[in-house]
Amino acid sequence: MTRRDRWAQQLMRNPLLAPVYEHVYRPTLAWTLMGFDLAHVRQERAQTVAALRLAPGDAVLDVACGPGLFTKAFAEAVSPSGIAVGIDMSAPMLARARTANAHPRAAYVFADATDQPFPDDAFDAVNCYAALYLIPDPWAAFEEMCRVLRPGGRIALMSSRATQRTWIAPAQRWATGMSGLKMFGEDEFTSALAEAGFTEISQEFHGVAQYVAATAP
Predict the structure, then answer these.
(1) How many CB atoms lie within 10 A of CB 177?
(2) Which of 40, 42, 90, 179 is the most buried (most CB within 10 A)?
(3) Which of these CATH numbers, 1.10.443.10, 3.30.710.10, 3.40.50.150, 3.40.309.10, describes 3-215?
(4) What is the model's pLDDT at position 199?
């Protein structure tokens, strides 16, 4: 892990961030990443539920769930008999999730995205939004998400998108290098999913954010 990676991880684990993340940090970051598309930000959770095709009785995993914004929405979608599990490596974020976004069908677990404590094929759907660019080994996390997803299950990812504009690229590399954030190419996730045998691969771009969804083989 580089020094900048550690800085990004430490920021998310700072107890001072958790109370403001839900209402200030996360909306502002999302709005900026998505090219100031406020309408899209407002509908992001509902669109994610649709992308994952959640139904009552499903088991869904929310990787790097933070304060549980999406986990709670997933729990509502899979009720009354399903389960939404949010995992994170930030104890303050999980504490916030258990209070601000508690739900009878939601469970919050302290766990590493790159070494998940679940058996193979454990979930009907797996989600990871706005986190892969912070994880020191994002591809290890990606492999774990694929491992715990059952055949025919759905995966949904939202992450960063490297600019295609050559005149902006140097500034973007400098900014992300200083912050520890990672920028992913437009075809990195879609190619990895296709190579793993996933089908129904979809992709949308909003600003410097990319949304990818697919069905497991």
Answers:
(1) 13
(2) 90
(3) 3.40.50.150
(4) 98
